[in-house]
Amino acid sequence: MSGAVSSGAASTEDHRVPGDKSITHRALLLSALSTGTSRIHLPLMSEDTLATARVLGAMGVEIRGIRPGSHEVTVSGVGLRGLRSPEEVLDCGNSGTTARLLLGVLAGQPLTATLTGDASLRSRPMARVTGPLEKMGARVTWLEAEGRLPLRIQGGELATMSYILPVASAQVKSALLLAGMCGGVSVELLEPGRSRDHTERMLRGLGVEVWGEEVEGGWRVKLPSPPSVLPAGGWTIPGDFSSSAFLLALGLLSGPPEGLRVTGVGLNPTRTSLLPVLRSMGARLEVEKMEAQGEEGEPMGTLVAYPSALMGVDVPPREVPGFIDEIPVLAALASRASGTTRIRGAEELRVKESDRIRAMVDNLRAVGVDVVEHADGLDVTGGQAPPRGHVEVRHDHRIAMAFGVLGTVPGAWIRVDDPSVSEVSFPGFWELIRGVATGGLPPVVTLDGPAGAGKSSTAREVARLLGFRHLDSGALYRGLTCVLVESGLPPAAWKGLGEAELDAFQIHLHPVRGGFAVMAGERLLPDASLRTPEVNARVPGLATLGAVRKWLLSRQRAAGASGALVADGRDMGTVVFPQARVKVFLVADLEERARRRLLEQGIEPTAQRVIQEAERLASRDGQDEGRKEAPLRKAPDAHELDTTGISFQEQVDAIVGWVEPWLPPGWEPSPVAGPD
Ligand code: S3P
Hints:
- The protein is of the alpha/beta class.
- Helix 3 (96-107) links the parallel strand 5 (90-91) and strand 6 (112-116).
- Helix 3 runs parallel beside helix 6 (170-183), helix 10 (327-334) packs parallel to helix 12 and helix 14 packs across helix 23.
């Protein structure tokens, strides 16, 4: 991911997501069309909703408080037919909702306007809205390609409309209702499925008569007698359920055991069909508290997601309109479930901000997931392998965020080509998920591998570059070996040592600049005494002793308590820090390792010596891999790095590249403080 992470301790505080995108667009539009001043509390201030505010501003609507992060916006309405002819082209940016709902509004205004958008929006179908609007009396001219923006619309007198929508679409439905409102004509619609009903609820909240009912063949909506004046309103925008879905997914995949809580989320039942789907996959998701309905009749509540083992399901196609925007994150979750998840009846995904079926299929494959594309959906088969690879977001915020969440699973490494697209609907997304996933702490990084793979020197340099401490776990074993040798206790007796005897040597780690010194009581054990031939010969045997390993474990873990650690050894990723976010397993050819070992000791690596050293290393490998306690092996979520043919700098760069996405927001590499 392009952000995220730590040693597992995720934050347990309450989280909030930005305001609902659909409701904010509608609050801005309805306020603009009302008579009087409306107040919008906690609006979503993102690229999409700013586009709506901008185009309304270009038509004479005064909106105050519009800026990123604003908690309150006030809108001076111009009345149902009071918009001014715009002098400029109305640029809707990436926002389909802006373009389509605005077309409905413009159809009922006595003016001409030109609409355009970014490359993604210019590729999306507009005829589904303009078709029925033309039937009502609007005149539309395509300026480039038929059915696509840019277009010119001339509004005016409209006729009553009765229309069957070919697809369930809240945007089309809302555009027609708004046209009815502005044109002062009744509208009756039949949708094949039930799409989100914010427009209906908000109109009702302003005293407008709007009906909605289940009928044979779908859902009927009626605006029988639009009023001539729309009163000003006051809106409090709930958190966006679609945005909360990303946090919930994070909670299910890698959140804290006590649950990840998202408060103040809009729980309109036409938006929350994802919840039963996820529950049918085995997700533990709870609606903890329903809060009072806001003035716009939108229910709100607190959602809690607990880490859950997920299994694949067949997603009911009938329910798809109720979670259409959540399918990218659902597919990402499916890639971590056991078995296959089949999503069908979702052909609408092909005409969202990107072709989301194609985008998910290509990008899931790019991170190693088994996926099959269908005309109206996709099959995703889950797996355990950590997702890794490069993701192309294709101007689509929800694709970027779905992979952002997937990037928080253990061992993941996902690079998103344009993380900034999340600003369309979820400002601060990356900071938030990085903060949640890391608990605000930098990660523990583990480097394991056989003797001579270059662990220590690489770990030291990675730690220096990142401003982390380096824990050379081998030095602890050496420290203990050193004092045991000094004590004169025969090595044959070492295996009988218990906790109390080991304690008596007072071996511990003392933080120093950039790392730790090995101490025996008050005495610092210098590197030279940790690397005598006797210590070299005895340390592998000592390291096989279960009691010793157990005794050292707490000392090693204590070093990682504050995160920001690069720990090298043989069981750092498997036993000591199993929750470490970034694990690396270094390997290299035996000969290459032998050569390096000799050079390290200042010995010329002649052919003869290399062979001897390689034999020694091979037997050490056998000992490390075969021992009962914490055998040397690659953790399943570790990155394997073969250092044979690559330079030291290349090794270091590769590892830093894996760690970078997991640095908490604002982390500045600086030398780790402590005495030299
Ligand atoms: C929206 C409706 C949905 C949804 C979009 C917002 C709305 O689109 O995908 O993100 O606010 O009305 P369709 O109505 O085209 O399905």
